[in-house]
Amino acid sequence: MKTIVIANQKGGVGKSTTTINLGSALAMDGNQVLLIDADHQAHTTKGLAVQPKENNISDLLTKESVQPNDVIVPTKEDGLFVIPSSLNLAMTEMKLSLMGAKEYRLRKKVNSEEIRGRFDYCIIDCPPTFGNICMNAFLACDWVIMPIQLGYFSMEGVDSFIETINYVNKEMGDLVNHRCKFLGVLINFFDKRTNLSKTVMEKLEEVFDDLIFKSRIPVNIKLNESQLLGVSVFEHDPLCKSAEAYMDLKEEVLLRLKGLKT
Asked: What is the chain's percent helix, strand, coil content, to nearest 5?
């Protein structure tokens, strides 16, 4: 199983939208795909109209007795499953801070046979903070995708984001022989017509060069409509520009994964 984290310390950059539609694109190839909603805003959960079981991601992280099969919920789409979130995940940050080995709890559950033996891909939607939950995601994943919007503040925090990944790998990953790799930067809400977008894009290219995915996710009302309907953009309008862009992204991701070793 290949595990990808979708993360950025900034909110509103399309993390949940990317999680939903990249996961759906992979499932359309016949893969079994698990999405883990690790954000207390629960946008991945809501965006797929998932109704959680009695337990959710909070219980999986804080209760030894709760196992993945206790929280996994199927979506309306074949091959696509979710471990849902809720607002009480915000309280989980505090609970984790009082627990031993708090950064490795998700890793232990994701590495279980009932997950790795069942799914081909796991995609984790991270909160826009670098707390205990995000550390859990980094220590459970193989690769990281950073979605970004070409706005005025887009470059803020990029250096600290990279430093955080390096810190996790060195200070905590070494203890369990773990490395999460940077898979790429995804441009969301792309509008090439504005001068600001062009300026920010040039700065990103200076920092990331060929790590930037060639696929760009355009501004498209179909994405918002699909989330209101509780489905991926492929279920809502498979011929729209956003659907085409996410399908292109899926192909790029697969090519990059083939060129990397876990």
From this structure: 50, 15, 35
Residue-range domain boundaries for the chain: 2-258
Q: Up-side HSE of residue 22: CA atoms within 13 Å toward CB?
A: 32
Please tell me the number of Cα atoms within 13 Å of 186 on its side-chain side: 29
Token pair for residue 13?
Answer: 């950059």
Q: How far apart are the first and last CA of the chain?
A: 10
Tokens of 168: 């996790």
**CA proximity to 84, closest of 114, 124, 132:** 124
pTM of the model: 0.90
Read off the pLDDT of residues 44-68 as tens digits, 9 standing for 90 and up: 999 999 988 878 898 899 888 999 9
Q: Two tokens at 15?
A: 């993390």
Residue-level length of the chain: 262
Cα–Cα distance measured from residue 186 to residue 161, given in angstroms and rounded to the nearest whole number = 14
Half-sphere exposure of 15 (CA within 13 A, CB side): 29
| CATH 3.30.750.80 is held by the domain 2-258 | no
C-alpha 164, offset from chain centre: 16
Q: Which residues, 6+ apart, have CB-to-CB distance to 87 below 8 Å?
A: 40, 42
Strand partners, 190: 218
Q: Which helix (H) or strand (E) holds 125?
A: strand 121-125
Residue type, 133: I
pLDDT in tens, 171-228: 777 667 778 888 999 988 776 666 666 777 777 777 788 889 999 998 889 988 998 8
Name every residue whose Cβ is closer than 8 Å to that of residue 79 and which is 6 or more positions away in sequence. Answer: 27, 28, 30, 31, 32, 33
